[in-house]
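W.,

You were right to be curious about this one. When I first looked at the sequence I had no strong expectations either way, so I just let the prediction run and decided to look at it fresh. Below is the sequence, 146 residues in total, followed by the output.
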Amino acid sequence: MDEAVNCEDPDYQVDVSFSLRSELLVPNEVTMRLGIQPSRAFAKGESYQRRTGVRQHPWGLWVLSTEGKLSTNIAKDHAEYLANILEPKRAVISSYLEDPNYIVSIRIDWQTKYAEGGYTLPSRLLARLGLLCNDFDMVFLAKNED
């Protein structure tokens, strides 16, 4: 399915992200250990603004996302891009995978303006990514613009 989508087709959007979440997470420490700048990160207790007022994050989060990094909207390309960045850091990531205080996830967001659709990922690529996380989160969003 995915290969048929034009890389420039604005009707589809893809974002693949890797995240670490923990009440103990210190963003600068994760950044230093991985040697990668996150797309976004915050510590537990940091304040942020909502329409309803100022709130505090209930846990720390460190995220590396493909959003805005690739000109393609093919999920496989985004997943490979992320795997290629993270695989050399597997030893460090393994320490988080083994720590029960951390949730380590890879999330694939796939958005379309149509009511249905999907993508294909090679099983070998999923196996590679599976060594870098405890969980996969697959999100399919249909944006109804009517």
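Here's what jumped out at me. The chain has one domain: 2-44+54-142. And, maybe more interesting for your project: The two ends are 25 Å apart (CA to CA).

Coffee later to discuss?

I.
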